[in-house]
Amino acid sequence: MLDITVTRSDHLKQKPADEGSLGFGRLFTDHMFLMDYEAGRGWHSARVVPYDNFPMDPAAMVFHYGQAIFEGMKCYRRSDGGLQLFRPRDNFARMSRSAARMGMPVLDEETALEGLRQLILLDQDWVPHRDGTSLYIRPTMISMDVGLGVHASKTYRFFIILSPVGAYYKEGLKPVSIYVEDEYVRAVRGGVGFTKCAGNYAASILAGDVAEKKGFSQVLWLDGVEQRYVEEVGSMNMMFAYGQKIVTPRLNGSILPGITRDSVLTLARQLGYETEEGRLDVHEIFADAKAGRLTEAFGTGTAAVISPVGTLALKDEKVVLGDGGIGPIAQKLYDTLTGIQYGRLPDQNNWILPL
Ligand SMILES: *Cc1c(COP(=O)(O)O)cnc(C)c1O
Q1: Cα–Cα distance, 319 to 328 (Å, whole number)
Q2: DSSP labels for 208-254?
Q3: pTM, whole model, 2 decimals?
Q4: Ligand 1 in contact with 196 (CB < 6 A)?
Q5: Coil, strand or helix: which one is 34?
Q6: What is the pLDDT of residues 10-29, one digit of tens each?
Q7: What spacing in Å lies between the alpha carbon of 257 and ligand 1's midpoint?
């Protein structure tokens, strides 16, 4: 593990007075963590410094060829005031897998975790207290070589920034309406769908925008070849409940292996539900929903944890799931997982890292 130097900011920002209106990713804390990579030398110069701009050459490769990957996780405040992270090692391990696919260097995961720990401890007063709030953590890696020749960059920067975020649901879980995207695709097998790369988001923004204008809050992506099998929602994995059985698309290389997805599958089995990973035909999903066999659908991801789906639409067809409200399985999984994350329930799976 690298030594980490710490430079404290000498002019701390005003912290938000109202934790009820934090929103998502709008405010940033007083410090950030940085480290740099150079081929032949490895990761070096790990440091916590005041949050600030950093200069970038306009010819830096990330702007032109897009080697950029990121992660998203949260630090939670327990009711006794203590702080805890949820499965942070899994996020850094996933970042290394993203990096390997993008021709970027794998992370020095121990230094990244220690850097995160020191950064949060320094900015700990920024972790909000109100129920449902948290400190969102955004690790990012970008290519830094200057020049327009297409090659794997020899220099990279890794950084972590922190943002206090509000409760995703202010008045309890709320069902969303989702449009099944039938024109564009997000990722194909053999591509980069399983990585958390910036380009996957760039490719999805137009479709999200169109769906929003039609009154839907998210897009459900289908497979890139037949446009028939369910993949995932913008930044969430998808799960469907048939009575006491939960089914979800298997990790086929083009969907993101969500840590919430894995946690929900594990908890579901521990709570006595049957789980199945497979290939889900969207037309069967619609038929099952109409026939009442499919009783619930919900997304899983760090930001919302669980997001119940009230209606699904494909072209002119619309189906309501269950009674269009919050299904009992979604509610149970939400209560259990957030209970563990906020330290209200015991952590039987060793997911929590107290700070
Ligand atoms: C981050 C992300 C998810 C959710 O992953 P979690 O680890 O559960 O937060 C799902 N799909 C995509 C495309 C993502 O980028």
Answers
A1: 19
A2: HHHHHHTT-SEEEEEPTTTS-BEEEETTEEEEEEETTEEEEE---SS
A3: 0.96
A4: yes
A5: strand
A6: 999 999 989 989 999 999 99
A7: 7
